[in-house]
Amino acid sequence: MITELAPAKINLALHVRARRPDGYHEIETLFAFCRDGDAVTVAKAPRDRFTIVGPFADALAGEDDNLVTRTIAAFKATYGIRGSQEVTLDKHLPIASGIGGGSADAAATLRAFATMYGKPLDNHVLQMCAASIGSDVPACLLGRTAYGTGRGDRLNPVDGVTGMPVLLVNPGVAVSTAAVFRAWDGIDRGPLGSGDPLQAALVGRNDLQAAALAIAPSIRDVLELLAAQPCVTLARMSGSGATCFALFENAVARSAAHAQIAAIRPDWWQMESTLA
Ligand code: C5P
Fold this sequence. Notes:
Blueprint: E1 2-19, E2 25-45, E3 49-53, H1 57-60, H2 67-79, E4 84-90, H3 101-116, H4 124-133, H5 137-142, E5 146-149, E6 154-157, E7 165-170, H6 177-182, H7 197-203, H8 209-215, H9 218-227, E8 232-237, E9 244-248, H10 251-264, E10 269-274
Parallel strand pairs: 3-4
Antiparallel strand pairs: 1-2, 2-4, 2-5, 5-6, 7-9, 7-10, 8-9
Helix pairs in contact: 2-3, 2-4
Bound molecules: cytidine-5'-monophosphate.
């Protein structure tokens, strides 16, 4: 039996540069990963079985076609695997929330299957398989801070933010990534910097924020509350939203912010973590 963590992904910055003829957008982003998230457990079994447990299991219940089942099919087709497996997804991250929950689950499934069937992880066949499942899946497979270009699938790892305390907050609204990209105003506001990732993030932006705010106005409340907390280095929306994050100078300040926000908005989802 193999258990793989599916850590939450955040976009420290996300610049949208152009619409592409294939329906995707050319982006420049800085991916970072939390130490916490979902988990995927895989074991060989007499017949295929897929179970979802955890706090957000109900949100996915009844959907036969999700990113994990698609990933299992893609992996088996790619490597010609005939056996059956029992797969359990422990769902802690909210659905459709800009922190790559589904992509992280897909990447964790690929890692677990690759380990189980003795396939190398740093191999372009597995990376191609990841990219065929979703734009963020290659970044989640890599699982470390990286600049992403193209549709987010061309990656350049970078060091410099590991260990930073982070708080994720979601106002309880699911937002469709495709709808947010469609609502982008089409204005290229310029490239994302390179080099030191925190510096690049601080002078960077999330170009999807305005589009997401138009769809889910409560994102503004989250951003204002996060930005008002003491010792915040950076507060921003992640991906296409609605989850926002704040990086803190220390873990005590992060936990104080968590408690403060929980007291004001007990209905909002929050996760305290540390950047990997
Ligand atoms: O690649 P993935 O299936 O996760 O993307 C979901 C949707 O988000 C795409 O169908 C597309 O509408 C939008 N998208 C985009 N440009 C990107 C990534 C995603 O337009 N770079």
